[in-house]
Known about the structure:
Layout: H1 3-10, H2 14-22, H3 29-40, H4 46-59, H5 63-74, E1 90-94, H6 103-112, E2 117-121, H7 131-135, H8 147-157, E3 159-163, H9 170-180, H10 188-200, E4 206-213, H11 222-238, E5 242-249, E6 257-258, H12 260-271, H13 277-293, H14 300-312, H15 315-326, H16 332-335, E7 345-350, E8 355-360, H17 362-374, E9 388-391, E10 398-399, E11 404-410, H18 413-426, E12 427-430, E13 441-445
Parallel strand pairs: 1-4, 2-3, 4-5
Antiparallel strand pairs: 5-13, 6-9, 7-11, 8-10, 8-12, 9-11
Helix pairs in contact: 2-4, 3-5, 5-10, 6-13, 6-15, 10-11, 13-14, 17-18
Amino acid sequence: MSQHQAAAATGFRAVDLIRKKRDGTELSSAEIQWLVASYTRDEVPDYQISAWLMAVVLRGMTRAETAVLTDSMLHSGDVLDFSSIPAKKVDKHSTGGVGDKTSLILAPAAAAAGVAVPMISGRGLGHTGGTLDKLESIPGFNVNLSTADFRRVLETCGCAMIGQTPQIAPADRKLYALRDVTGTVESPYLICASIMSKKLAEGIDALVLDVKTGSGAFMKKEEDAVFLAELMVETGQRMGKQVVALITDMNQPLGRMVGNSLEVVECVDILKGAGPQDLRELCAELAGWMLFLGGAAASIEAGKQRYEQLIASGKAFEKFKQMIQLQGGDPRAIDDLTRLPKAQGSMEVRSSRAGFLSSFDCEQVGTACVVLGGGRERKEDSVDPAVGIVLHKKLGDTVSKDEPLAIVHYNDASRAQRTRRILLDSFGISDAPAAAAKPLVRRVLGMSGGTH
Ligand code: URA
């Protein structure tokens, strides 16, 4: 049906709904349902949806509009039913950050504890990295499984990680790609609908949300992150799911590596019991919740301990290998990391002065990686899996003049020079030691983590 035919049938026209949102008027359920369904069927063009999305960013949405948008996106495709799998189905989702690679660690770790993790993830969005892009840097790894194969991998190894298929939340798949390149990511209503539509389509019992706040997050201010967390917890609970949201710090990249294959390397470090402290701590915290909600531990603390055991015994690592194999990837790539894509050149970024690393413009670090080719500037862009940044310093560290702050791994020298300049501007170096860093986990919303 063309837009004209649909408009004739319903009386709706995209341009009227754009104007209505632009002028701050609440849209009806029928209007939102029509817009989402028509866009999913390619009957409303990208440019009209882009304008509507921008109006939402600027004008916001009511709770009722957000609920209808989420439901329309959820029902734009199939809602999976994994009730035949006896284990509890639990997922974790982050609102997006820089160097945020916890999914690749948590899905296999929770599966090794007997929790089922059917994970549907996204690609890089704006300055943030995406789980799918990271997984695809493992040679052969297929994130585009059919629903039947998704189920088969989940049943066989307890976790499976894919992207939205044309069957699962197809509206989000289209909207996500469009928002990425139209400056329309940063709306709590759109983020809530995007994340929750995907997650609710997965057939899960419980969800752990990692809501980022700080200079590298979409929600820079903690109160905005809390607002988004409340929206998502409310949406999940309305659908009868157990949902918890951790508000976590994103004022500096998580871990030390930013860029797709580099981040896989860092995940392997963590799965082998090493890796940077902040990433280890956050993984343990999120795993504690996943295991608790998945019935594999009686409390968050017990969940964290079980997670540590699964790392120490190598069972989480083995689970990751099994999932890679089942999804068509080459598991040898994580035993021998030289099999992962490697950039041709590397360049040090040196400090022009001595002092203390007192701030990061973390969003700029993410942008620096996009500029290298590690993310997308246009919807059609492909991602270079090999490029990225290795950071040598964390907030509070001392810095000497000329000391390397970071190493840029590149395949294009002019992009590397741009990246170097962006990175130099993103480090704040002060004479006096910085105030103590804020805790990694700021708040927990939605549930308490005692015994069942
Ligand atoms: N992650 C998502 O899945 N969607 C968003 O809109 C932002 C982060």
